[in-house]
């Protein structure tokens, strides 16, 4: 491998590790990404893991970008191929001119050879053989040896990566030196036999700034703590389980009064029980939430309808995955938009939030609880596996200590004394929201029987057509109120003819795609949706553009359907851009989908208008 390669590229590459699940590679790969982060280099990680048992393939991808392009990019610059089962797929994913690093203790099969990529053979199995007597240790330390090789090939600061080892094994001092020895073994081999660093390398940067690296599920759990949640009921399901685990972790730190726990976390027997516990706790005045994925939302439908109709606050985090049915439970998708928005039967509509970053997960962890109390209704927060389970760069979390929870229209005993007759569903000010009480607030007033059947504004059972119609109209007024108070969309509008709508993790590759489209003469205004119901700004944006691309990660253009349905929009005006293969959508896919829509003549017209 020659070291005199022209045009060295710094802090701009994609590196993918192909391993066997359960081989101990996760620690090594994670240390690699965090070492770059500690060098101040913006990175994004994607852990592509199997939903089945140990021994199946797993991949870990690291996007390195000083330009802060942290969405997925097609193609791999350096493939660390450690799983013979996936060699064919792994070799094929390397871009022309890229590099394949493999264990050359066994020769690479002839059919895997590619003339347009560079092979880097390192005899990892042979290197660890004399160093570690335990076969299990040999397997584990192979991962650390290739990390040492990479430290030389990419010029990773060695003190930084050995510092990562010390941090990783803090409290297990007997493991620190053997891991450092393995790093040195790989680094020494690369420096002696591999002829110098690669043409793409890393160096210290100030690109990270004050950002942190955290996953969205952890951020959501912490946000729920700050938002005042005291009850979490859940049933384990990938990829949402770590939301509840994060809540419990931080509650054990922040919600203890001496030895007394000031919170409850309940693992229910199924998802239906979990949402039932949440609704019961919220009816009683406790801020409560659950976390699940698509199959759980399906099971929770009936209870969500009850909470909507009986007007009980509840928060549900849906960390979306690829469906239908079990689908691909460890792959990402935005496939629950319609099922969340219209969960349950009858005329039911739910407030839905769409976080795009860990910071927004933290903020929505609290905002969702405020909205649930104020609107007296379920709030569904749609994250996904890409955001929920992968470490992402994030702006630091912020909290204003002067902030007070919005508990909505909750009457005190003194206020009830001033009321001749308490009407639970009476709309006093035209916003569609009635007043409520907590059980036991007053000895004589404020009590009501919560039911899922039709009732009048005093919570008295009735099947009167007039009363039912009036109640449904009031719920519609509440919906109009919700549209005014949910998080607003983020809009960039320069008066161009073309617009693009996106939401959630589709935001990650958007800036890169937009920059690439601009180079082709296609300049696009954008709107990132953050909530449903849609505000007036959403429909104004669509009206102001001749064509609007709706970019999402599902087959059936679910957000596009929601926009058409709610805004009575001509479907021809909304051009679908859909990706649904289980990986996160890439900048390349967005760029090509939009560019392919326009002929050369049309592009020239767009350029003339926008400039």
Structure commentary:
With 611 residues, this protein is of the alpha/beta class. It has four domains: 9-201, Pyruvate-ferredoxin oxidoreductase, PFOR, domain III (Pyruvate-ferredoxin Oxidoreductase, domain 3, 3-Layer(aba) Sandwich), CATH 3.40.920; 213-394, Thiamin diphosphate (ThDP)-binding fold, Pyr/PP domains (Rossmann fold, 3-Layer(aba) Sandwich), CATH 3.40.50; 413-480, no CATH class; 490-610, Rossmann fold (3-Layer(aba) Sandwich), CATH 3.40.50. Helix content is 38%, strand content 19%. The protein has 20 helices and 24 strands. A seven-stranded mixed beta sheet has the order 13-10-14-15-17-16-22, sandwiched between helices. It has a six-stranded mixed beta sheet with strand order 3-4-2-5-6-7. Helix 1 (25-38) runs parallel beside helix 4 and helix 16 crosses helix 19 (587-595). The longest helix is centred in the N-terminal third of the chain and has 21 residues, at 173-193.
């Amino acid at each position: 491998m020659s070291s005199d390669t022209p045009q060295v590229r710094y802090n701009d590459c994609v590196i993918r590790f192909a391993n066997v699940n359960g081989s101990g590679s996760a620690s090594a790969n994670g240390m690699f990404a965090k070492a770059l982060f500690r060098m101040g280099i913006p990175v994004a990680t994607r852990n592509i893991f199997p939903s089945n048992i140990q021994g199946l393939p797993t991949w870990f991808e690291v996007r390195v970008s000083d330009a802060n392009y942290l969405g997925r990019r097609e193609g791999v610059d350096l493939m660390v191929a450690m799983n013979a089962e996936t060699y064919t797929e792994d070799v094929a994913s390397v871009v022309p001119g890229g590099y394949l690093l493999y264990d050359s203790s066994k020769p690479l099969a002839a059919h895997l050879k590619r003339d347009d990529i560079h092979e880097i053979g390192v005899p990892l199995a042979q290197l660890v053989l004399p160093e570690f007597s335990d076969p299990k240790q040999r397997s584990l330390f192979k991962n650390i040896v290739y990390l040492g090789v990479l430290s030389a090939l990419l010029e990773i600061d060695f003190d930084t990566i050995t510092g990562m080892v010390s941090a990783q094994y803090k409290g297990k001092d007997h493991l620190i030196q053997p891991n450092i020895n393995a790093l040195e073994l790989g680094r020494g081999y690369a420096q002696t036999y591999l002829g110098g660093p690669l043409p793409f390398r890393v160096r210290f940067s100030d690109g990270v700034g004050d950002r942190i690296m955290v996953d969205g599920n952890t951020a959501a759990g912490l946000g729920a703590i700050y938002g005042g949640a005291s009850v979490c009921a859940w049933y384990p399901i990938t990829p949402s389980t770590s939301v509840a685990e994060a809540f419990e972790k931080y509650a054990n730190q922040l919600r203890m009064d001496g030895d007394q726990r000031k919170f409850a976390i309940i693992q229910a027997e199924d998802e239906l029980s979990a949402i039932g516990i949440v609704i019961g706790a919220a009816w009683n005045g406790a801020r409560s939430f659950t976390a699940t994925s698509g199959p759980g939302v399906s099971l929770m439908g009936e209870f969500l309808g009850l909470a909507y109709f009986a007007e009980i606050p509840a928060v549900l985090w849906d960390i979306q995955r690829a469906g239908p049915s079990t689908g691909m439970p460890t792959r990402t998708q935005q496939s629950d938009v319609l099922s969340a928005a219209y969960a349950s039967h009858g005329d039911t509509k739910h407030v839905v939030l769409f976080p795009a970053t860990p910071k927004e997960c933290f903020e929505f962890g609290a905002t969702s609880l405020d909205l649930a109390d104020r609107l007296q209704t379920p709030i569904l927060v749609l994250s996904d596996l890409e955001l929920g389970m992968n470490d992402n760069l994030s702006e630091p979390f912020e909290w204003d200590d002067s902030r007070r929870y919005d508990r909505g229209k909750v009457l005190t005993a003194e206020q009830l004394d001033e009321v001749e007759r308490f009407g639970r569903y009476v709309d006093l000010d035209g916003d569609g929201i009635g007043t409520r009480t907590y059980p036991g607030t007053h000895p004589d007033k404020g009590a009501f029987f919560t039911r899922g059947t039709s009732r009048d504004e005093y919570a008295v059972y009735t099947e009167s057509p007039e009363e039912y119609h009036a109640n449904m109209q009031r719920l519609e007024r509440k919906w109009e109120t919700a549209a005014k108070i949910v998080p607003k969309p983020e809009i960039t509008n320069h008066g161009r003819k073309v617009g693009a709508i996106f939401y959630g993790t589709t935001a990650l590759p958007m800036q890169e795609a937009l920059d690439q489209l601009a180079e082709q003469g296609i300049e696009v205004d954008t709107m990132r949706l953050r909530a449903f119901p849609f505000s007036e700004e959403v429909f104004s944006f669509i009206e102001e553009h001749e064509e609007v691309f709706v970019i999402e990660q599902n087959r059936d253009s679910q957000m596009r359907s929601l926009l058409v349905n709610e805004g009575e929009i001509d479907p021809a005006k909304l051009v679908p851009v859909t990706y649904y293969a289980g990986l996160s959508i890439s900048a390349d896919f967005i760029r090509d989908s939009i560019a392919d829509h326009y002929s050369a003549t049309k592009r020239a017209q767009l350029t003339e208008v926008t400039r």
